Amino acid sequence: MEKFIELLQAMPFWGWITIISVGTVAIEGYIRIRSMQIKHTERMAKIKHGIDPGDETEAYKKDEV
Questions:
Q1: What's the whole-number average pLDDT of the chain?
Q2: CA angle, corner 6, sides to 4 and 7, nearest 5?
Q3: Which tens digits make up the pLDDT trace of 21-46?
Q4: 1-38 as b/e, with b when 16 or more CB fall inside 10 Å?
Q5: What are the C-alpha distances in Å from 56 to residues 43, 51, 52, 53, 60?
Q6: pLDDT of residue 37
Q7: Taking the complete model, does pTM exceed 0.70, yes or no?
Q8: Could you state, in order of their start, the residue ranges of all structural domains in the chain?
Q9: pLDDT at 59
Q10: ∠ CA(36), CA(40), CA(42), 5° rounding?
Q11: Surface-to-core class of residue 61, CB atoms within 10 Å of its CB (0-12 exposed, 13-18 middle, 19+ buried)
Q12: What gap in Å lies between CA 43 and CA 47, rounded to an integer?
């Protein structure tokens, strides 16, 4: 553990920038993948219930007279 702390203290400024940027890209990638998974799940649920997943206005057609 002491070696790890020494490594962090010895790291130059550009090393910290690299670690932060890699972490940011990893978090952004996770958020995008999770968003795609949610959209896919919603699309599959629409198909399962017989709703056209490409037609966003179908749910509102019932309310129109």
A1: 85
A2: 65
A3: 999 999 999 999 999 999 999 999 99
A4: eeeeeeeeeeeeeeeeeeeeeeeeeeeeeeeeeeeeee
A5: 11, 9, 8, 7, 8
A6: 95
A7: no
A8: 14-48
A9: 55
A10: 120
A11: exposed
A12: 6
Residue type, 59: A
Query: Please, what is the Cα angle at 19 between 15 and 21, to 5 degrees?
Result: 115
Residue 4 corresponds to which amino acid? F
Residue 47: strand, helix, or coil: helix
Overall average pLDDT of the 4-24 stretch: 89
Matching residue, tokens 């978090």:
27
Q: How far is CA 63 from CA 32, 42, 43, in A?
A: 34, 22, 22
